[in-house]
Amino acid sequence: MKAGVGAPTRAQIPERTFRTDRWWAYPLSTGAILVFFTVYALVRYFMNDYYWAPAEHYLTPMYSPCVNEACVPGSSHFGEFIPSYPAWIPIGIFTFLVLLGFRATCYYYRKAAYRSLMFSPAACAVPEPAKKYSGERKFPFVLTNGHRYFFYAALLFAAINTYDAVLAFYGKDGGIGMGLGTVIIVVNLAMLWAYTLSCHACRHVMGGKLKNFSKHPLRYRYWLLVSKLNPRHGLYAMISLFTVIFTDAYIMAVSAGWITDLRIFN
Q: Which secondary-structure segment (H or E) carries 179?
C-alpha cells in the first residue's frame, strides 16, 4: 500500500486493530439486512405474481405503478401504456430500477454499503482492506452523482403510493372500508415519505442555494421541516426497508389466498 495505514512512512503494526469492543457487530448486521432485502426484492420482482389483491384493492409498492399490458386486471391504476415484454423481464422493472437507483445512491446507504460490504472502513480505527482508494470517480460509483434525479423520481413514486393507499380504503362491498392491510399500507407510506423527505438532496433542493431566507419564507419553512427530519434519515432508511418488505409480504399472502385479510369494517 502506498497510502493509508500501509504507507512506508507509517509505523508498520501487524495487528489489524487494537479495539476490544464488538466493532464488527454494526457492519455485520447492516450488511445482513442489505443482502436480505436485495435477495427478497429480486425474488419478488421475478415472481411476476401475487402483487394485487382485487377484493381488498391492495397493490404492493414493489409493483406500483403497474402500467404494463401484462398486469393483472384492476392493478393498473394509471393505464397500461407499456407493451408487454418477455416473461423473463419483471413487470415491475421500472419501479425496481427507480427505487434501486434512489436507495443505492442515497448517502446513508452508500455509507452503510461501504462499511458493511466493502469494509471501507468497517469501523473507526479499523483499516480497510483495499490497497487503493479512488473515491467515486469511476464506474459504477460515478453513478451516485445522479442521486438528486433519482430523488425527483422517488417523489413521484411516493405520490403514486399515496394514491394506492387511498384506494386501499375501498370496501369489499363498495363504499369506504378498512382492513389490516390498509393499516399496513398507510404505515409503510408514512415511512416512505419520512425517508424520502429527510433525504439530503431534498434538504438541498429546499434551501441549499438560498442566500436570503427572508425573501423565501415558504421554502425556508420547508427547509426547516426537512432539516428536522434529516438527522434521522438513516433510521427512516432502515425502517422503511422493513415496512416495504412486510407490506409486500402481507399483500402477497392475501393475493395468493394464503391468509384472509382481517377487516376492521366493510
A: strand 178-179
Torsions phi, psi of 126, nearest 5?
A: -120, 105
CA–CA separation, 261 and 55 (whole Å): 10
Q: What are phi and psi for residue 68, nearest 5 degrees?
A: -90, 150
Q: How many helices (H) and strands (E) does the chain have?
A: 8, 4
Mean per-residue pLDDT of the chain? 90
Hey, is 234 helix, strand or coil? helix
Convert the pLDDT of each residue in 65-92 to its tens digit: 999 999 999 999 999 999 988 888 999 9
Cell matching residue 193: 415519505
The 3 state secondary structure assigned to 158-170 is HHHHHHHHHHCCE
- Put residue 53 in one of left, alpha, beta given phi > 0 → left and psi -120 to 50 → alpha: beta
Confidence of residue 234 (pLDDT cuts 50, 70, 90): very high
Cα separation, 143 vs 150, whole angstroms: 11
Contact 230, 203 (CB under 8 A): yes
- Is residue 8 over pLDDT 80? no
| DSSP string computed for 90-148 | -TTHHHHHHHHHHHHT-HHHHHHHHHHTS-TTSBTTB--S-S---TT-STTGGGGGGHH
Residue position matching grid coordinates 438513516: 234
